[in-house]
């Protein structure tokens, strides 16, 4: 799907799982560039961190070789970490940025620092954020694609299909959440189809009470409740394209979603 994927990392522990996950998102012949930015501090500390970055560079090369994909690690030092990431993304022609949620979901702000916020706001390419549950390598039974639109977002469906193929053809379930006056929260009709790449795709209409539907862009629990009825899976969430109601994947919405999600989550903003 992506020809040039940029993965910013902060610690050696993130290197292998992020490269392995990113490999599933690559188009044939695609490549990964791994970036570690050292915030400019005192010279002794900068020197120490620069030497320690070998623990990022070597695993990046080893993981790329094991997966037989091109991985190019790079280490930079800069005061403006998100600015450095955005500069490299622009100069390298990156079409996707892959980030991991680094915060503690029990904290008030699961995004550590302002890096994720700046990338979400200013990146010209797709920004993909995953939580740590998505990086465990555990097999999932299905991919859930919830949306408040009449159809799943095209790019999110493409990404879900790519992951489903890499997982051996697991099914995709699109949850189409809508409002119907006077109707309590319930599950509506199903429609079964097959994607262009042969993946089973079930579209399920989920009818919400109007009062609940009006809170849809402020309360991620609505999405998680719908996912719970399907016994979870890997949740892939993209923008639903409803311009009249504003963007869904705001920082506030994502903070609440990642803080409470009990399942692997991937969000796509692009």
CATH superfamily name of the largest domain? Answer: HUPs
β-sheet strand percentage: 25-35%
Average pLDDT score: 89
Span from first to last CA? Answer: 13 Å
Number of helices: 9
The CATH architecture of the largest domain can be given as 3-Layer(aba) Sandwich
CATH class of the largest domain: Alpha Beta
State Rg.
19 Å
Ranges with pLDDT <50 over ≥5 residues? Answer: 107-113
**CATH topology (level 3) name of the largest domain:** Rossmann fold
Strand order of the largest sheet: 3-2-1-4-5-11-10-6-7-9-8
Task: List the domain count as a whole number.
Answer: 2
Major beta sheet summary: 11 strands, mixed
Fraction in helix? 25-40%
Secondary-structure-based class equals alpha/beta
What's the number of extended β-strand segments? 11
Order of secondary-structure elements: EHEHHEHEHEEHEEEHHEHE
Describe this protein's structure:
It is a single chain. α1 (15-23) packs parallel to α3 (54-67) and α4 runs parallel beside α5. The protein is globular. It folds into 2 domains: 2-131, 3-Layer(aba) Sandwich (Rossmann fold); 143-269, 3-Layer(aba) Sandwich (Rossmann fold). By secondary structure, it is α/β, with parallel strands linked by helices. It has helices at 15-23, 43-52, 54-67, 81-92, 115-122, 154-166, 210-214, 221-229, 251-260, and strands spanning 2-8, 26-39, 71-78, 96-100, 126-130, 143-147, 172-179, 186-194, 200-208, 234-238, 265-269. Belongs to the universal stress protein A family. This is Universal stress protein A.
């Amino acid at each position: 799907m992506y020809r040039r994927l940029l993965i910013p990392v902060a610690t050696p522990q993130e290197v292998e799982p992020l490269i392995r996950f990113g490999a599933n998102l690559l188009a044939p012949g695609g490549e990964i560039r791994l970036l570690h930015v050292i915030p400019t501090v005192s010279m002794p500390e900068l020197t120490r961190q620069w030497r320690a970055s070998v623990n990022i560079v070597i695993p990046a090369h080893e993981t790329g070789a094991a997966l037989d994909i091109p991985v190019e690690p790079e280490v930079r030092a800069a005061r403006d970490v998100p600015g450095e990431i955005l500069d490299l993304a622009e100069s390298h022609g990156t079409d996707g940025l892959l980030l991991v949620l680094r915060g503690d979901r029990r904290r008030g702000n699961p995004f550590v620092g302002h890096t994720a916020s700046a990338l979400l706001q200013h990146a010209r390419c797709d920004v993909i954020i995953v939580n740590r549950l998505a990086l465990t390598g555990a097999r999932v039974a299905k991919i859930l694609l919830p949306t408040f639109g009449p159809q799943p977002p095209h790019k999110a469906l493409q990404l879900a299909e790519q992951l489903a193929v890499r997982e051996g053809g697991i099914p995709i379930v699109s949850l189409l959440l809508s409002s119907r006056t006077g109707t309590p929260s319930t599950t509506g009709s199903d429609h079964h189809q097959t994607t262009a790449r042969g993946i089973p795709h079930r579209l399920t209409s989920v009818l919400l009470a109007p009062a609940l539907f009006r809170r849809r862009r402020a309360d991620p629990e609505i999405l998680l409740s719908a996912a719970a009825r399907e016994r979870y899976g890997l949740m892939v969430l993209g923008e639903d394209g409803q311009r009249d109601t504003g963007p869904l994947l705001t920082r506030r919405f994502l903070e609440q979603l990642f803080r409470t999600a009990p399942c692997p989550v991937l969000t796509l903003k692009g």
